[in-house]
Structures are given as C-alpha cells and as structure tokens.
Amino acid sequence: MRLLTHNLLICPVHKKPLAIRNVSAVDIIPVEYQPRFLLRMIPRLDWSLLRAAAVSVESDCVDALPEAAPSPSELPALEKAVESGDRLPLLDALQRLLLETHVVGGQLHCEHGEFYVIADGIPNLLADAAVNPSETASEQAACTTEGS
Amino acid sequence: MAQRPENKAPPQVFYDPKEARKYIYHTHTVEVQTRLAERALELLDLDPSTLEQGPALILDLGCGTGLSGDVLSRAGHLWVGLDIAAAMLSVAVERDVDGDLIQLDLGAGLPFQIGCFDGAVSISVLQWLCHADASDQDPRKRLFTFFMTLYACLRRGARAVFQFYPSHERQVAFIFAQAKRAGFDGGLVVDYPNSTRAKKFYLVLQAGPAERATTMRQQALSPAVARRFVEPMTDDVSEDEASLCETRAPAGNTAIAAVPKNRQQNVSRKSVHRRVQSVRRLIEKQRLRRLRQGKPVRPLSKYSGRKRSSHF
C-alpha cells in the first residue's frame, strides 16, 4: 500500500485517520516523476498524518518535508517552478513518499484502540478482521475468571 | 441457463483460489474483462483539464485480480483496488499490479476521506451487492451505504461507471433507486441490446453537477459495434442527464430502444393474465360456497371472470 492511499484511508468504524505502526517491511518501487499530480494532491492530503507515516516507515525524506502543508497561496508559485522544469526538494520528497514507498507489512491503528493488519501490502479492513486489544483482553479476563 | 454465480455463494467464498486462477489462465475471461474495463474507462469521460495535470486517481471497486486495473495503468492512471475475496487479491499480488489493493466489504461502505478520487470503475460487481449473505444483511441498506460513501469520496462532478449483470429489470430499478437516494444522477448504457450474449449493461453515475460543461464525446463507433442505445433511468431528465443519456450510435443507425419496449409489453400482458386468473379463482370460490349453501349458481365456463369487450 502506497502512503498516498494510506493518507486517504480512514477507519471504517470511527471515520478517523489510521496510524501506521509495527512496520515489518517497506518496499520502494521507483515510478515516473509526476510533479503536476503531486501538486494537485497537496490540498487533499492530511499533512500531519503524512509526516507521522514518514516517520513510522523510517523514510529518509522526513527532513525534506516542511512542518506544515504549503498554503494555497504558495501553490501557484510551485506550479510555475514545475512548469519551468525545476526539481523542487519538496516534490521530490512527496514523490518518494506518496508514490514510491509501499508498506508491505505492518498494522493500521485507529485512535479508538482497534487495529487492522497489513499483509503482503494489502490492508484487511473487513469488519471481522479488526483486532480490538481491549476486547481480547476482557475476553481473556473472562476466560481466566471462568477457569478459576 | 447456467446458475448465476452470485446465487451460489457469497463472493469471498465463491472466488476461491481455483476460481481466481481462471482470471489468469482463461484467455477468454481475461479478454472479456479487459474489453469491459476499456469501455468503462471510455464512459468515465475523465476531465481533460485534470488529465493535463498528470494521471487521475481512480477507484476500482471489486478489482479482483486487477485485470481492470491493468487497463487503468495502461491509460496512465493511478488506481486503488478494493475487493472482498482474499484469493483474488493474492493473485493480483502475484501478477504484480501497479495499483494499491485493499481488502474490504463494499456493502459496509468505503473508508476514504471526502472528495479524493477522480472517478470510479467497477466490472461485474454490482449484482453481488444485491444479495444478503447473512441474516443481518439488508441489500437495500448495504447498497445505499455503498453509494452514499462512494458519493462522499468522489470529487464533485466525477463519474462512477458500473458494468454489471442484472438478473431482471426490477433489479436495475432497485439499484438505481438506491443510487438516486445517495445523490447520484445518471443513466443506464446498454451495449449490443439486440444480442443475448454480448449485451452489456453499464450504470453511469455522476456525483453532483460537473464543474465543467459536460462534453459527452459523440465519436462514432465502428459499424460492427454500432448497435448500442442508452436508456434514461429517471423520469425527470435534466439537461446534464440528457447529454449523458444521448444515443452513442453513429448517424444512420436509428433503430434503437425497440427491444425493451417489446419486453415491457410482454410483462404487462403477463400481469393482465395473472389478474384474470386471480379473479377466476375468487369467482370459483364464491360459486362453490353458494353451491354448498344450496343457492342457485350458473355453470362455470371459459367466459367466467372475463371482462366484456369494450364494443359491446
């Protein structure tokens, strides 16, 4: 799963962004440079989530990402720079993160506790595949009390 | 006629590893799927101003082994594929498709941010959503949730094209009612309406009014594929929809929409017959009761329960 898809994804139950944790494998597959597409995507991105994801996959592009998303007023200037053929460090970092970085193994955590597993690069968001640690803990507790 | 696959088992069960293999090795299946996806992409009619700014981001609903995704990749688009069947997705991983894959149940809704996709295609999936696989599943609710969340995650004016195999006309109306409730506008495109085998249904939906003027391309198709017509689904066809529902057959081929009319007549004749039957049954019951009570009755004849002709 690309980080772009991760950025657009929300928890199917609570409709909140999902955090990437316990990453076991990351793939980097170079693709064609798409500066215009990335510029078009910037307003649709959740910037803080992207930064958090970049940190969790231990990408080397974290430093190239600014703290905040480029404001709408900055976008025309960026567009001009792209049209004149400049390679901007910001867009290089976005290209690497959004389009080339694939999370192959890991977990997607919702802030409400449950998490979804990513295996073979496919996150499983089926309702019965969600793992809820608090529920399993309470179930285990119930089992132990029954046992005693 | 062979039993429809959606009547056999839920999709995550039906598409087992063996069934998924068909989507790599059966040349005919692959060919058909690819052709359907190409046509769906054509109907998607992506905004040319968006295309100037690089690839579009497209949802592939029920991507399966990614055959339709390959068509999108070849056209230079980025796509995200959703499917419920794990076996199909693992084949897609084996085939090393370009798009991202997510395993989820479409009927439970699409978990995406608002307005992030430029379009959606779906090949042979919608009919699966018309079935309840568990006692707590209501197809009406599932379809509505699906369409509502799809509407939310598409950009305004974006299109969604669904190729599907409806089992009967009422199913089309049922699906369209749910799409309309969720806010979609659109119509049904039927390719090759006069052929039983090649006949294909495409539901073309539009999420809100387009920001640009709709420029439905009217390119002529080769004579071999000329027999297409478009059936408007709504009663109140707005201008936007009218352009969406225009006949795409080249000039000169005006014999359109004759087939469904005939079928409708057949349906109405059948229902009239059924009504007469039920009236006859009622009269027969009353006749027997009066007979038991010893009251005078007329003998039953072939004219019982029939209406008098109008020119009496």
UniProtKB/TrEMBL annotation, chain A:
Question: Which biological process terms from the Gene Ontology are attached to this UniProt entry?
Answer: rRNA (guanine-N7)-methylation; tRNA methylation
Any one GO molecular-function label of the UniProt entry: protein heterodimerization activity
Family, according to the entry, reads as follows: Belongs to the TRM112 family.
Checking PANTHER family in the record gives:
MULTIFUNCTIONAL METHYLTRANSFERASE SUBUNIT TRM112-LIKE PROTEIN, UPF0315 PROTEIN-RELATED
Official protein name in the record: Trm112p-like protein
Q: What is the lineage of its organism?
A: Eukaryota, Rhodophyta, Bangiophyceae, Cyanidiales, Cyanidiaceae
From TrEMBL, chain B:
Q: What are the start and end residues of every segment in region (Disordered)?
A: 289-312
Q: Answer whether the UniProt record assigns the keyword Cell membrane to this protein.
A: no
Q: Which residues form the 18S rRNA (guanine(1575)-N(7))-methyltransferase Bud23 C-terminal domain?
A: 254-309
Q: Name one GO biological process term.
A: rRNA (guanine-N7)-methylation
* Coiled-coil regions listed: none
Q: Which residue range or ranges hold the Methyltransferase domain? A: 58-133
- One Pfam family per UniProt: Methyltransf_25
One GO CC annotation, please?
nucleolus
For this UniProt entry, which residues form the secretion signal?
none
Q: What's the superkingdom here?
A: Eukaryota
Please give one Gene Ontology molecular function term for this protein: rRNA (guanine) methyltransferase activity
Identify the keywords attached in UniProt to this record, alphabetized. Answer: Cytoplasm, Methyltransferase, Nucleus, S-adenosyl-L-methionine, Transferase
Q: Does the keyword S-adenosyl-L-methionine apply?
A: yes
Record localization: Cytoplasm; Nucleus
Query: Record's family?
Result: Belongs to the class I-like SAM-binding methyltransferase superfamily. BUD23/WBSCR22 family.
What is the official name of this protein in its record?
Uncharacterized protein
The taxonomy runs: Eukaryota, Rhodophyta, Bangiophyceae, Cyanidiales, Cyanidiaceae
